[in-house]
Each structure stands twice: as structure tokens, then as C-alpha cells.
Amino acid sequence: MPKQSFKVCLCWRRVFKTRVVEPPLDIKNAFYSFSPSGMMTVDDLLRFLIEHQGQKNATKEDAQAIFYSLKHLNIFQRRGLHLEAFFRYLLGDLNLAHPPSKVHHDMNAPLSHYFLFTGHNSYLTGNQFSSASSVEPIKDALLRGVRVIELDLWPNSSGNDVNVCHGRTLTSSVGLQKCLEAIKENAFKASEYPVIITFEDHLNPNLQEKVAKMVTETFGDILYTSETENLEQFLSPESLKKKVLISTKPPKEYLEGNTQGEEISENEGGTVANECQSSSQWNPPEEGEHVPDEDEGKVVPEYRQLIAINARKLEGGLENWLSDDPKKVSRISLSEQKLESAAKTYGTKTVMFTQRNLLRVYPKRTRLDSSNYNPFVGWMHGAQMVAFNMQGHGKRLWIMQGMFRANGGCGYVKKPDFLLHRGPNDEVKVYLGEGWHQDFHHTAFDRYSPPDFYTRIGVAGVPADKDVKQTATIEDEWLPVWDEEFKFQLRAPELAVLRIKILDYNTTGRHYFGGQVCLPVSELRTGIRAVPLHDKKGNKYKHARLLLSIKFEAP
After folding, report:
1. CATH of the domain at 166
2. Pair (411, 427) in one structural domain
3. 387, 415, 443 — which closes off a domain?
């Protein structure tokens, strides 16, 4: 049996024997109930898939494919699978709780009927105040399936070109042309469904004309432009496949010569401005605030024609912002605080507004560290574009990534019916985990011994569904076996995300991260399933995974 040694001091070492994990009792019972002879045939495996795993449409070819997948193992026997081979199948990629899937939601409804994977300040590499701007976060977001990219447009220091940066901060800038080229190159690698670019425009008419030329020349035929300024209903994701859409407010008048009264954003105080601010001769509005109507005579028609989704100016109060014009649809943007106010005071009106129109929610200005907010407040009220800072990590970003693993990871998730039309007891059993010793150095968690793993498992969703449970801690073990069962009652499973986080217990109170995963509850497969784990940034580990038993029962 292999051993691992941990150096404690110059004098001596601690030696731990590593062991091969055995199948838990439930798995042994399942195996022998379908193969009493101790050897599982193809027909036995097919019965297991249909009756125990709930795969009602499983075929003999599916069972045969599992047999073939195990051929490379020394434990495989032609006559059938014995217990160890069956156990390896359960932990393998052919038995995932949420396997890679194709798009299966109806994609022919209007855009307003979907949640969209949405980024905030998509060009920033780090914090919102002093980090670099780059095309790399844009590429990374698109390759992860993000469908809405935000770009802030400002004049460069000479006033003759357009840069992208977070104005009135110390962030650096990146050229707009580079951003557009990065979007074109990566837009449809992860998903063929439309990419929407939201512009925060701080430009004069001359530069708006330049932007219009850049955009049309860069995207060519894949740029979608509307023949009418006022749409009565948005088109569908299906009809907009492999198209790029621009969404922004109609351009406002550039105030030449306005060198006085440059406002400072509430979170940036009297700091030194970046070139995006210092080059601007007028006072840009706060994100989501009212923008005065432009002088129509000074508007660049080529720029206006770019706008496929009109972002509406905000007039009056919340109730007026959420008014639904039956003759045209539009998009509005609200900060997370404004959304919370709308949810408390005009919850039903917010849902009704988002049945036809688009609502974008963005982080409050004090999130300088690029942290994120609770996405379920937006999703519960139908907000399609819950904009997140994608460059960080943490619980809320993991939940966002988990939600958009649904529907084949295409970046569009159909809203549940209760958000579109007017007028269950759940059970998860955590068996065991494996693979950490292959993905981590043997002293990654503890210099003197193997890790002491425990699992936190919970549901993120509407307030009534939120719940977190925790397993016992398994000490000094790379292959922990918990064999614990937890039940969660769900009122809105369509909006629920299963959250799993593995930690190494430490007596100092600083528990070390051992992996995480978030999965859409609505797409989980029942039965005994493997669940690969991911790192803090959402990248999948090569080997580390859990084995779960998942059941859904009516209340």
C-alpha cells in the first residue's frame, strides 16, 4: 500500500498509509440488487440505468458504451462488471450529475423571456479603481459563455480616438478597436447565440461617427441592426444566432467648451483622473442615471442606426421607470440598490415590466473590489441581465456560473413560466470524494498530515429555499467517505442552484479551500452521480470530484 511522509522537523517524519476507497454500503446494495451473481451484465446495467438512475430513455447501446469506456482498466472483465469496475463507472464522466448537454430550452421566444449571462465592466482585469483594462477578460468571459459584454467609451487623451476604461478612476485604458476585434474573434466559440454589447457612451458626435464606422467594418454581416427604431417585441435568440447587437441610450448632445464643474463619482473622491476622464470636456452621467434628450439635429444617424436595443432614459421615479409601453420595448438599467427598492415597493410591476422589456442590474459603486451581489433578487423579479464582475471569484460568482451551466451552457436560460404569465421535497446524499491527491501537492492543505475534509452543501435560490448543511470532518484522509444524507425543501426549483464547497478543517479557524461547484437544480440527474469540482475561478479540476445520490420527491 503506498505511503506519504510529512516532514515535521529535522529529526523525524510522520508517515501515513494511503488507502483505496471502498464503495459505500448503498452502492454495494445497488450493485448486488441488479447483479445477484456478483457480475453485472450489459442487460443488468441497462436495468440499473432505467430503474435506479431514472434514465427512462436509456438503451442497450448506452449500457454497451459504458462497458467500452472501462476497457482500458485492468479491472475490466469481458463477462461483465464486478463491483470495483461498477464503482469506477459511477465516479466517471459518463455518470455526471449534470453532464454536458445540448441546448434544449425553447429558443424561439422573445429575448425578454430569457436570463442572459451578463458581464459588468467586461474589460477590467481586477478591481474597479486601479486595475488594468485589457481584451483578455473579454475573451475569457466569451469563452465561458457570457453573452452580454459592457464597454465604457471615452475619448483618448488627444480627443481623436476612442478608448475603453472605467472613467474617473485610476484604471488604465484599452483601445475600442482591440475590444471589438476580440469580441468578433471569440463571440461564438462557446455559444452560437447572440452577443449583446452594451455601450456606456461618453463621446462627442465626431467620435460617435468613428465608433459607427469601427463597429460596422469590424462586424460586417454579423452585426444586427433593426429596420425600425421602435420594436413592439424583441426577436428570439434563435432568429439572432451568430449575430452581434449593440445596446445603448440614444446619443446625447456633446457639450463643447464645458470645462467647468467636472463631477467626481461618489466612490472616487478627489483622486487623480485617468486619461478617459481628463480628455472629456463635459460631465458624464452616473451609470443608470437620467440622461437629457439630445438635440436630434446633432445626432449622428450612422451611430443611431447601430442601436438594436434601445436603452431608455430614466424619468420620474421607480414606478414610472417600470412603465410598460405597449407600442415599443426597451431596456433600462438599475443599480442593485434601486432593484432592491423596486422589489420591495413594486415587485409585481417589476415582473410585469420584464415580461416584455429588458432589465439590466449592475453592482453598486462601492464594490471597488469587483465583488458581486445576490443575483436571485434580480432573477426572482425577471431581470434578464444581472451584470456581474467576472474577473474575481467567490460564492455569488460561482452561483452565477452554476445557473448558466443550464441549457447546454449557451448563455441563455429560459425563465420559469411563473415569471412569464400574468394573472418538492429534495434529497441529496454525499457519499465520498476523490482525486484531490492528484490535483494538489500532498502538503497543499497541511504540512504535517493529509487533509481533514468536510463538505458544505446547500441551495441558493429564492429566500424560502436558501439552506446550507455540513458534513462531518474526515481527518487525515485524501479519500474522505461521508455517507451523509441531507434534505432540502424547494418552492421554486426552477431558480434554485445546488452549491457544494469542500474545505480542509484547520484549528486556527482558517479553513483551506478544496474545491466547489454550483449546478442548476432543474437539470440535475437523479441516482448515484459523479460531480467534478472546480477551483475558485470556476476552472474544472482534472480529478477531484464527489459521488452523490440525488432524489426528487413530491411534497
Report:
1. 3.20.20.190
2. no
3. 415
Pairing of strands 114-116, 412-414: antiparallel
Are the C-beta atoms of 551 and 53 separated by less than 8 Å? no
Ramachandran angles phi, psi of 400, nearest 5° = -60, -45
525-554 burial, b at 16+ Cβ within 10 Å, e below that, comes to eebbbbbbbbeeebeebeebbbbbbbeeee
Phi, psi of 481 (to 5 degrees): -120, 115
Coil vs helix vs strand at 345 = helix
* pTM of this prediction exceeds 0.70: yes
d(CA 122, CA 148): 9
Altogether, the residues listed in the chain come to a count of: 555
Is 7 inside a domain boundary?
A: yes
Count of C-beta atoms within a 10 Å radius of residue 474: 20
Q: Confirm whether 480 is domain-assigned.
A: yes
The answer on 226 and 168 residing in a single domain is yes
In eight-state DSSP terms, residue 292 is P
pLDDT of residue 4: 58
Q: How far from each other are the two terminal CA atoms of the chain, in whole angstroms?
A: 47
Same-domain pairing of 65 and 203: no
Residue type, 157: S
Can you say how many angstroms the Cα of residue 450 is from the centroid of all Cα atoms in its chain?
A: 32
* pLDDT, mean of residues 92-108: 92
Q: Is 435 inside a domain boundary?
A: yes
In a domain, 261, yes or no: no
Q: Which residues are catalytic?
A: 120, 166
Domain that holds residue 510: 423-554
Cα separation, 63 vs 169, in Å, equals 58
148: left (phi over 0), alpha (psi -120 to 50) or beta: beta
495 and 380 Cβ atoms separated by less than 8 Å:
yes
In a shared domain, residues 231 and 346: yes
pLDDT tens, residue by residue, 449-498: 677 889 999 999 999 999 999 999 888 776 788 888 999 999 899 999 99
Q: What backbone phi and psi angles, to 5 degrees, belong to 331?
A: -120, 140
Q: Tell me the per-residue pLDDT of 319-354, one tens digit each, with 9 for 90 and over.
A: 889 998 889 999 999 999 999 998 888 888 899 999
pLDDT digits (tens, 9 = 90+) for 189-234: 999 999 999 999 999 999 999 999 999 999 999 999 988 878 899 9
In sequence order, the β-bridge partners of residue 201 are 153
In whole angstroms, how far apart are CA 19 and each of 10, 87, 454, 480, 530?
27, 16, 18, 10, 20
Statement to judge: residues 43 and 149 lie in one domain = no
The per-residue pLDDT of the chain, averaged, comes to 84
305 and 448 fall within a common domain: no
Is-contact 354 336, C-beta < 8 A? no
Among residues 367, 385, 415, which one ends one of the domains?
Answer: 415
